[in-house]
Every structure is written in C-alpha cells, then in structure tokens.
Amino acid sequence: MNDKVMVRIDGEVIAATAGQSVLQVARANGKYIPALCYMEGLSPQGSCRLCMIEIQGVKKLQPACTTPVSEGLSVTTHTAQLAGYRKMALELLFAERNHICAVCVSSGHCELQSLAQEHGMTNTRFDYSYPSYTPDTSHPRYVFDPNRCVLCARCVRTCAEIEGAHVWDIAGRGVASGPVSEMQRPWGEAESCTSCGKCVQACPTGALAEKGWAVEEMTKQKGVVSTLDTMRRGQ
Ligand code: FES
User: Fold this and answer.
1) What DSSP designation does 171 have?
2) How far apart are CA 119 and CA 37, in angstroms?
3) What pLDDT does residue 54 have?
4) Which ligand 1 atom sits nearest the alpha carbon of residue 152?
C-alpha cells in the first residue's frame, strides 16, 4: 500500500504513506515524540503511553505509535497537558519496580532514565511498590533482572520477530506480569535461545544486560533491530 495522504503534525502539513503510524511520520520528518515501548523494526505495542498525542476531533488521547495516518489527520504532539501525562506515566513506571539508577548497569545510557530527566522528573508522587524479584542469572552470557523491567516487551518482540526464536513471552497479569523465558524455564536452560543477544540490545533499561559488564561497557546498540529488519526486507 503506497497511497499518499496529507496529514498535519503540530500545524505542519506533511505528505505521508497510508499505513505508517503518526510516530513513524513524525520521526521521518524530524519531529520528536517521546516513546519507550516502540522500537523501529518491531511491531508497535502501544503499552507505555508516553507517545500520547491529541487528535483533532477525537476526545481521547491516542498513542502515536499505533495510530495510523489518514487523509486530513491533524495531531498535536506537545502541550502542557501531554507533558503532564507523560511525566505521570514515568512516575508510575518508577514506582512500579525497583529502578535504583545509582546501582544499575545501564545508568547513564538508560532510556527510562533519559526520559525521566527530559521530563523533569525528580521524584514520584506515587508510593513505591518495592516488589521483590529474583534476577535470572542462569544464562552463561546474559542476566535478566525483572526489578528493572518496564514491561515494554521489546525483548519479546525482538526474539519472535527478528530472531525467530520466541524464547520470551509475557506471563502474569497487570503489574505482576513480565517477561518469562521458554514457558518459565530459567533462561540458561531455554533450548530455543540462540544466545544472539538481540533481546539485550533491544531492552531500554538494565533489565537485560551482558553478564559481568561494567556500567561504561553496557551501552546498547539500539539500531541493531531496525538494521536487521531493513536487511531482511531487502531495502
Ligand atoms: Fe507508543 Fe509506548 S511508544 S505507547
């Protein structure tokens, strides 16, 4: 489908391709919308709600990553109200798990931390849940710490859609849900895991990390997923 449509983003008229999301069109035209669960090269999930936008004529806010463009669509991506909602979503994420940046291997190159700084989040208005999760250190090369997970499922989608192994899935409900490897087997015993490490690169926080790596080493190659997706489609 290559139908061209004209949309308006923050007042600017932009030519887009039907089927693209508002977030894709905005990014392609140099417009920034915060996002956490979205990752280029993966199917959108729309769960973090950081990319919420206002659509003219629509009462509810909508996620830019799962809203397809259509002829005449007019959206606003930055208002004081949206900034407030995004900040609240970040506060809730911090309150939900144990995001202790000072002792995290991803500190300084964590997407959650960067988004919090960007939104001026210095504290959270919500009570911390302080859940008690045991990190899975069974894999010889990688470690999974659910305490640092934001439930974006980028690992799940990367493993299924890019690597084709589908080691990861989401189990449980609500705040108690989270990634599990191979039907809740320890990761190190998951026979379908190819140890490719793509899930680690896709993880926005320190939830998935290389074992034994220092903070300065644990920078992630965020472009690896989109590069592989582009190569696979022969573009
Ligand atoms: Fe759109 Fe997460 S990036 S909901």
Assistant:
1) E
2) 17
3) 98
4) 2
CA of 62 from ligand 1 middle (Å) equals 10
Q: Beta strands 4-9 and 12-17: pairing type?
A: antiparallel
Please list every protein residue whose CB sits less than 6 Å from any atom of ligand 1: 35-38, 46-51, 63, 65
Query: Rounded CA gap, 28 and 42, in Å?
Result: 16
- From the list 53, 45, 47, the residue with the least C-alpha distance to 27 is 53
Instruction: Compute the distance between CA of residue 152 and CA of residue 150 in angstroms, rounded to an integer.
Output: 6
Distance in angstroms (rounded) separating the CA atoms of residues 127 and 107: 22
Mutation to probe ligand 1, out of 27, 33, 36, 88 (largest number of atoms < 8 A from CB)? 36
Q: Measured in angstroms, how far is the CA atom of residue 17 from the centroid of ligand 1?
A: 20
How long, in residues, is the chain? 235
Our mutation pick for probing the ligand 1 site, out of 27, 45, 93, 112, counting the most ligand atoms within 8 A of Cβ, is 45
Which of 128, 181, 137, 150 lies closest to 36, judged by CA?
150
Alpha-carbon distances of 180 from 203, 211, 213, rounded to whole Å = 14, 18, 22
**What confidence tens digit (pLDDT) does each residue in 33-83 have?**
999 999 999 999 999 999 999 999 999 999 999 999 999 999 999 999 999
